[in-house]
Amino acid sequence: MLRYRLGLFLLLSLFITSCTKLSQPLKFWQTREVKIREDSPVYELLTRAERYFQRGQYDLAYQYYEEVRNKYPGTPEAVLAELRLADTKFWSGDYIEAITLYEDFEKFYPNNEAIPYVVFQIGTCYYLLRQPPDRDPTFAKKAIETYQRLIQNFPQSPYTLEAQKRIRELRELLASHELYVAQFYFKIKYYRSAYQRLLYLIENYPETISAEKARSLIPRYYRLALRETEELNRGVKKDFFGGPVP
Q1: What is the value of pTM for the model shown?
Q2: How far apart are alpha carbons 30 and 24 in whole angstroms?
Q3: Architecture of the domain spanning 4-129
């Protein structure tokens, strides 16, 4: 029987995010078509899954990709389906679950040529989960770590330039967080802690806008940190609740 080329790929022409928008494709995968008999059950399953995916009906797409994975384990189609399961979670905004699925894919298929894309997507999930400067910086730090891993292991990947750009943006965010914390300590008159935070900011994020501002604050923060040290030595410094600082 004649074979037909299914309009799906082992490594799909996967759309990934640009900068801060999800609406624009950045790069395409190198693609290798999967030859599947048109009358094969997996053909129909993948066709439906991809149709729902393209329509944004991610819950339905997930069900069909999951069926492919479960019914045809060990096949190229199942590998494709596993990758698409992660993609459905990503595009539906369930970034925590998407991270888990992408990490599982990387664990079980470490030599698959989709791995640069997978690592980039893990970083992008963390990037999209990042918090503003006055909140927990954990996701921003994880995004940087993941993008750096991508750049180190796959420097020639089509995702390197975007990863580098986002690292710069995330470093600005982390620097802003450090400045926010320093100013908070300053506000509640913990001047030594505020001063140390400025030093940490300047040392670790020297190229950032926040570091420039921190440098301008250093003289004032330093003077007050010295005064606070003297007050501690005299035993007159009070803590936030009004009690003596040990």
Answers
A1: 0.82
A2: 18
A3: Alpha Horseshoe (1.25)
